[in-house]
C-alpha cells in the first residue's frame, strides 16, 4: 500500500495511457474546466500530441442558461469557434 510503481513511461501501456489522456482532455473541454490549457496536451510522455488550443475565445454552450456570446467585431451571436492566426508582438 505504501509503494507505487509509475507506469507512465512504460511502452506496454502507451495505448491505454493515450486513450485515458484524450478522454481527460475531452472532458476538460466539455465542462469548460477553468484550469485547462494547451499545456495539458503536451505532456513529456506524449510525443505524438499536438496543442489543442483553439484560440483565445471559446463560446459558451447553447444550454438555455448561459448568456449569448456575441462577436466583438459585429455584435452578432457567434457561429462557433473563431480561430485567427496572430503573431506575438514581443
Automatic annotation (TrEMBL):
<protein>
    <recommendedName>
        <fullName>Sulfatase</fullName>
    </recommendedName>
</protein>
